[in-house]
UniProtKB/TrEMBL annotation:
PANTHER family: PROTEIN HIGH ARSENIC CONTENT 1, MITOCHONDRIAL-RELATED, THIOSULFATE SULFURTRANSFERASE 18. One of its GO terms (molecular function) is catalytic activity. Residues 221-232 have a biased composition (Polar residues). Residues 221-243 are annotated as: Disordered. Residues 170-219 form the Rhodanese domain. It comes from Micromonas pusilla (Picoplanktonic green alga). This is Rhodanese domain-containing protein.
Length: 279
């Protein structure tokens, strides 16, 4: 049988970028995805435009590629473009996971922000939290020596819950997001593909990388390790002089590893296909 979109996505997955590279990595198409090896890094090519959200050429190429179905694995820049183009997010993380690590960025209606400091696209319909795997809590486990998600079980009504939220399978445009775009996102993409949804995209790096790039107002974050002083901004200025940025390092948001080390495969059981197993 030909590989599904989720299988191709898992095979073609590359290391998600934490900051925008120059030059940019080529996008993953269905044809190249099927031929690519797992975790293979693409060759870099020169491009004549800024490979990021907000560049008119990049945004148009992204819309064309994903709306046509040519591509279906979006990085954080592409996903931000799709957000503005009527694509919605299905966040399949567990309820306790969202409560502890944060909600997918979705500003209140009327929020001024984004790259262009305009009213950003938002709304209650933009992000639907639909658990693929449920848990009874996120708490410390002495045997593991760390916090773990307790009693993980597969949500048997996942596909039905998505269908209730998105009844129009022909026209719904869904970005599937888990913690890191691996085990659960691949399994969810396969389930929705089997359910008949025509427009599906896997978010590479999941919430963990998306949240590193975009604030709650959908502004672009300053890259990790880069600090700057804005003397006209409200609030305290920690340092002025030849190198004021050095004193502002303690204002930086500290992110943990983007890869989720939690074992979700056991709870997925038979729902975790070969593509999911290698994710």
């Amino acid at each position: 049988a030909p590989p599904t979109r989720a299988m191709a996505a898992a095979a073609a997955r590359v290391a998600p970028r934490v900051s925008t590279p120059t030059p940019a990595a080529p996008r993953v198409s269905r044809a190249s995805a099927r031929a690519a090896t797992a975790r293979a890094l693409p060759q870099h090519v020169s491009v004549a435009f800024a490979p990021e959200y907000g560049d008119a050429k990049f945004d148009q190429m992204t819309r064309d590629a994903f709306n046509s179905g040519e591509e279906f694995v979006a990085d954080v820049e592409q996903a931000r473009t799709l957000w503005d183009d009527d694509w919605d997010v299905v966040d399949v993380r567990a309820e306790q996971e969202i409560e502890f690590f944060g909600q997918f960025p979705n500003p209140p209606p009327g929020t001024i922000g984004g790259v262009f400091e305009t009213v950003v696209v938002s709304g209650p319909h933009k992000v639907r939290a639909i658990e693929l795997i449920r848990s009874t809590g996120y708490r410390f486990d002495a045997s593991a020596g760390a916090k773990v998600f307790a009693n993980k079980t597969l949500n048997p009504n996942f596909a039905t819950d998505v269908q209730n939220a998105f009844p129009d399978k022909e026209n719904a445009k869904i970005i599937v997001c888990c913690s890191d775009g691996r085990q659960r996102a691949v399994a969810a993409l396969e389930a929705l593909d089997d359910a008949g949804y025509k427009h599906l995209v896997l978010l590479k790096g999941g919430f963990n990388l998306y949240n590193r790039h975009w604030t709650k107002k959908l502004n672009r974050r300053t890259p990790n390790g880069s600090f700057r002083t804005n003397l006209s901004a409200p609030g305290d200025i920690q340092g002025c002089g030849a190198n004021p940025e050095a004193g502002n390092a303690n204002d930086a948001i500290q992110f943990g590893p983007w890869v989720d080390e939690t074992d979700w495969k056991t709870a997925l059981g038979a729902a975790c296909s070969d593509a999911c197993q290698t994710a």
